[in-house]
Batch of 2 targets.
Target 1
Amino acid sequence: MVNLTTDLGAGLVLANPVLTASGTFGYGSEYADFVELDRLGGIIVKGTTLEPREGNPGPRMAETPGGMLNAVGLQNKGVDYFVEHIYPQTSSFGTQVIVNVSGASVDAYVEAASRLVPLEDIKAIELNISCPNVKQGGMAFGTTCEGAAQVTAAVRKVWPRHLMVKLSPNVTSIADIARAVEEQGADSVSLINTLLGMAVDVEHRRAALSTITGGLSGPAVRPVAVRMVWQVAKAVGIPVVGLGGIACVRDALEFIMAGASAVQIGTANFIDPAVSQKVVEGLEAYCRDHGLASLEPIRGII
Amino acid sequence: MLFGFFLISVMPKKEILHLQVDANERLRADLHLLRMRRTDGQPMPPMPAGNFVQVRPPQNATTLNRPISVCDCYADNLELLVRRAGAGTDAMCDAQSGTMITVIGPMGNTFSTTATAPLLVGGGVGIAPIFALAKAYAGKGICPEVVFGERTAPAQQIVTKLEKVARVHICTDDGSEGFHGLVTDSPAWNGSFDMVHTCGPLPMMKAVAAKAAAAGISCEVSLENRMACGIGACLCCVEDTTDGRRCVCTHGPVFNTKELTW
Ligand SMILES: Cc1cc2nc3c(=O)[nH]c(=O)nc-3n(C[C@H](O)[C@H](O)[C@H](O)COP(=O)(O)OP(=O)(O)OC[C@H]3O[C@@H](n4cnc5c(N)ncnc54)[C@H](O)[C@@H]3O)c2cc1C
Ligand SMILES: Cc1cc2nc3c(=O)[nH]c(=O)nc-3n(C[C@H](O)[C@H](O)[C@H](O)COP(=O)(O)O)c2cc1C
Ligand code: FES
């Protein structure tokens, strides 16, 4: 018997290590025609902010070789909408639902997280620290150790359950940032968020995205992500959740062997909306075929 | 179903379909009509006019899937009209008979079919959903007027298909066939209509919408914003509406122009 149960600590136990990445899986129901949601380790819902946000104007998306750039800009209806309208429906999913929390100031993160505390089925939040800090001239919290530590420490004071901090890859040393959030009480780190990128529509002589720059995701970023997961797994004691370009079970195994305790599937959901469940089944098959009772023997073997 | 109370589930179930190309007709240098068929003996799910599918281009020619309107759907067949625009549509147009193509759908909303005297205006490859709509009206016993605008004489196969379900008024930019001029100047507009439906290049749709508005006729347009997921999950395809930014893939692609702020 293969046991893929994954305990990420601080009360977050997943039936298997496969999560879906924030902003790529809606609120889960969008994929119910394609995936048995209760077969997933968990769903990370789209970025949620204190106030509703209408996001950036179009065009918000440009395809690039092996990937895509997005500039959605955290469009969402705000945390209160999640609490009132989405949360009541997620209990029937039969899987862990994790809320991705974003903010433009430390106070906004703290307030959004506080409003999720009464929702007992939400065992974890994922703190998206790639957001621009309005007070610091728009520089992302997650790009300095101080910024990352500050927002993690502040949310840690109000959020009693599992706190996952999602790291930005747009830094010189992601291991330093990971250590900084671990020191402030993060229970796990997830990485990577999108890489800052840009594309030009040369026919029309303008940037492909309305915001000019945007976030790169998809298979193109995978080697960068695997490298960063490997570096971070060596640097911290808390579990590492790996993502970036995973499109099949082989890709997921790459992250696990680099040290990830769990993985997230993002952009690949757009191409094959059933891919997340296929990765779960693929991990089970891999273990069976290789005589493994769990993924422990191969985790972090690199 | 577990998710019975979800808004999304009032929409028909979406399927991942593995279809075989039965015929790939080259209508013009850059335009192909693909007829594809399910091979599992099942009928196609209903795909009313306005719906689109997400096509995985053969040979994984692109990273993301490509949205293509349903042109015709019957029994176990799906017909798509594809114009070469880049790597994804090239791979579709180059697909040989027998090729398997993965298609996800049905996606999106549908045109209304409640008008009694509809005017349908299709430009270029935008004629694909307009054909589907004309067929739907014909099924209700209404023979719609269709204005079909093209740069030059349109492919005869499409015109023949259209003429079975509609009265067709061709307009060409170069005057090589039908009315020489814009779809908005077609004599077809002299009739009296209670609804205009349009799909085609954005400037054409805007002109059609303006003309309908001036005549006090309600107008539906089918938008073609760039998409990633096609199912309302990524929020990449938004359009500004009177009700805020809405996804074209789920709230559309068909919008009544009174909802749009373009
Ligand atoms: C709901 C919907 C229905 C559509 N129905 C049809 C159809 O029935 N037949 C058909 O031939 N095409 C249709 N299209 C357009 C088709 O999806 C695009 O032509 C296709 O995605 C281009 O992909 P590509 O890889 O061939 O070219 P790319 O190399 O990706 O793009 C070529 C050029 O087209 C532009 N482009 C990319 N995506 C789109 C888009 N979605 N809309 C407009 N321009 C785009 C790019 O900016 C670039 O300039 C539809 C689009 C939508 C959103
Ligand atoms: C359209 C889109 C929207 C995203 N929205 C969010 C978000 O709201 N919050 C967040 O933390 N990450 C967001 N991401 C980043 C993904 O969760 C993920 O970190 C990134 O895409 C890399 O993984 P992938 O290559 O598997 O997609 C988004 C990505 C995409 C493509
Ligand atoms: S294409 Fe993803 S939401 Fe419309």
Target 2
Amino acid sequence: MREVISRIIHSIPYLKFKKQKWAVLSLFILLTMYAAIPFEGFFSPFAPNTKFKTKSYHPPHVVHLFHENRFIGPFVYEYEMVNPYFKTYQTDRSRIHRIKLFVKGDSYKLFFFIPSDIHLFGTDDGSQYFPLGTDRLGRDMFSRIIYGAKVSLSIGFVSIFMALFGGIIVGGISGYAGGFADWIIMRVCEVIILLPTFYFFLFLRSVLPSDISPAQKFFYITLILAVPSWAGSARGIRNWTLSLKHADYVTSARISGVSPIVIILRHIIPQIRNILILSITLSIPGVILGEAGLSFLNLGITEPSVSWGMLMSAAMDINILIQYPWVLYPAFVIIITVFCFFSLGYSLKSAFDPKGEV
Amino acid sequence: MQTNKYRKILSAQNIVKRFPVKAGGFSSSAMYVHALNSVSFDIYENSTLGLVGESGSGKTTTARTILRVHEPDSGRLFFNLPDEGVSDEHDFFKYDRTRLKKERTGMQYIFQDPYLALNPKMEIGDIITEPASSAKKMTRAEREELAKHLLDIVGITSASISKFPHEFSGGQRQRISIARSISVNPKLIICDEPVSSLDVSIQSQILNLLIELQKESGISYLFIAHNLAVVFYMSDFVAVMYAGRIVEYSSSRELYDNPLHPYTQLLRSVVPEIGKGKKIYDKKAQGEVPSLVNLPPGCPFYNRCVKRIEGTCDKILPPLVKVSDNGGPSGHLCACHAVQRISL
Ligand SMILES: Nc1ncnc2c1ncn2[C@@H]1O[C@H](COP(=O)(O)OP(=O)(O)OP(=O)(O)O)[C@@H](O)[C@H]1O
Ligand SMILES: [Mg+2]
């Protein structure tokens, strides 16, 4: 632990990106998003699959503070469905629902294990508040976006770490051992890198059986998304290993009988730590988009799980998009997330490597 | 000097090492850099062998081949054996992986450049205990204790244990390298130009530290340098290397008083503080070092030598033979036709 702390302190001078406002803002947004995941049930007013049959394609509620020129705090008017076929709603100005904090609602598990039914906000008179409207089945978009974060945000991390783990093992050994094994491994990686990524995803996905549990599905999709980044990182790590394996301190460790795998982990990987952090930051958005793409085509995460890409597939029909534009909100969330990762990544890049050497 | 006073700690016999080079153009024949051509020498317990020679003569290759960083092409090496009765089974070059790992802890290596020899991302305490903790399991507390002890020996405050290499000067780093090398109580430390990248004022401190360590623990050194003055200061024996061969070998005293090989005489004449003897060479030596890819058939020093005997030296390679009984247990060895002709 002491070691870890001293390492972190040691690396603080590198965080020169403090000066860059966008990067700090991006980091803040991303950290908030990730930190919110364990509180998903608390922040969302409803469970992701709670359906309100009479509220199909309900537009986002407008929050008011004044009722008949009198301040009464935040509230919404009741929207009543007037055309069940076209799902058009009319505001009923006589029925108001106050928005309150810490209201009882659907039960959920805080941190995935503490049972609770308290939500940050909502109405407590048996009505609903839909901040971002609802989908075809009358499910709250806002809640579903929050629940979707768990899959969409974690899939990036999990799959990049899988890729990195594989990349360190394969690339490290390939570069360290050299010879024929190295040649074969590198050719395989190059083929994977050269294949068009998304078609490759589709190909791998098509090989998967379709009758698998959501957990298995998550695992396989993550694995599929990891393959192209694995090939990329294996190649990078292999090249760095090759250039560092004749460093004096590596020779010194070798003479002392340190095993190759320990040499790779202790003497080679730490030298390229910054590059790895950078490549993780810049690869995550690709994976998030990959998941979104697969799920958009109904080949990724499917009901009853929720992911941003899957939510977006509701926006596939142009007519729906025009009539109920709020179904596009998940796309904005994806764009913002991807933007934040790139903005952070490029600032890190200029901080780690001011001369653009990498 | 009595012969039986000396016990060999290492005996290198006819080591050959060549590196493949990419042949230019479309030529398909393999070409080699002949870095070591039948190198033999002995190192005695509790003494220092200086290995001197100009850049490219193969000093580093000798060191790294002995350590089996490079695998030799042929030759035998006997290291740290109880008696002289040696057989192939005790050949260091034939040890398998496990045996090598075990036996090699008896040898340590100190690099020339203290800025490249220490992993910049590791704490000093971890760096200097790495050889020891890789040889046997150690707890954190044991490592810390060992690190403090070692730092104390080499004269660095033990509070530095969790600092990183970049926080130290070149001289301090070389002390840290020394601390690392003594962490496993080696019999032999190979010092590859350990001071040549340091300030002159710091050089003598490091040299004296090495001498002190030897006095206390009886370590042997293979001390590599291209500065003859430093070699004389440090060594009990000196081997002079030229183009991948040992051309002269004797005790340091004898070599200082009576250098025989023309190349040694050349080296000695260019050292200002000891070069007061008869000048047989201009400051600029004529001729070039022969290519190590296409070795000449005769003496590699032929084209630069003032004593060369035409018809002999350019045709026949002079062997390294004893030319006098002075100069330690194996006598004064010299590989020169001209010298051998006189001494016969
Ligand atoms: N790994 C290698 N591959 C190919 N050639 C090599 C290799 N290592 C050394 N050589 C060659 O072997 C010869 C001897 O080199 P070496 O480094 O042993 O010389 P040195 O005496 O240590 O020189 P210096 O005083 O410059 O350190 C040189 O010609 C060098 O180019
Ligand atoms: Mg050298």
